[in-house]
Task: structure prediction
Amino acid sequence: MTSRIASFPNSNGLIAQSLQLQADYNTTSAQASSGLKAQYFSGISGDTKELVNLSSQYQSITNYGSNITHATNKLNVIQDVVSSINDLLSTVKSQLTSIGSGTNGNSNGALTTTQANSWKTQLASLLNTQYAGEYLFGGSVTDTAPVNLSAAGYAPTSFSTADTGYYQGNSASNSVRASKDLTVTFGITANNSAFEQVFRSLSILAADPTTSATITSTQNMISSAFNSVADMSSDLTTKINILNNESQMQSATLEHLSSSISSLRDVDIAAASANLSQLNTQLQASYSALALVLKMNLSTYLR
Result:
């Protein structure tokens, strides 16, 4: 009888063991299905502070990356527009050289007027380019086309007097916060002196397409604008490269942070699955042993 009564503590031990195995099984099952060491920070209390800090850094850099992506996309569109303007001015220069030398004929003033107005329209169209629904060359005025050649009062008549009456934007620049320590300012407005010179000289040329002095002055202003546009392109390339380099460094940092976060937060799913299988086997064995013990009733012990 002594040995039978002594079996009661054994049954209590089996119950405690089964409950612990069940808890371990539930924890491991959750890990295997979620890939996480714990569902709450309390489950990794020793690493919580470090994990929160690393996660905060990761999110901050991710946000900077989004800023860079948006700005780089916008800059690439601006660069494409500037490249197209460069091509347009190259064509204008070539045509004016031909007209000035007489190789393209200069007897039909209407033809030259048509050309001058066409070039103005092409430049205006390029400077009224939109990205993501916003005009790119109007400063912070993004909902209004920056160039309106029909604006009231805009009628340049002198090569020596600038006239930006066509411009509908402001002088504000764009900027992007690329990192905690890096802000890149960028933006080209349609009232830039290079564009203003092109519009002014072509307007005067359209009104007086046959005078040699007018053609020569227009050539000079277009050449000056062409050089300025080349400088714009170079500056844009520099800023795009700065942002791309920052993006590459951030990608490397994010990869390192991701690895560190994973080591604190994630489990090896393959290992967790294997452990789950072992726990299941142990749990079933524990249940079987417990079932045998529980089949013993009081009459069994009193016999």
Q: What stands out?
A: Strands lie at 130-131, 134-135, 174-177, 183-186. Residues 67-259 form a domain with the f41 fragment of flagellin, N-terminal domain fold (CATH 1.20.1330.10). The radius of gyration is 38 Å. Confidence is low (pLDDT under 50) at residues 105-110.
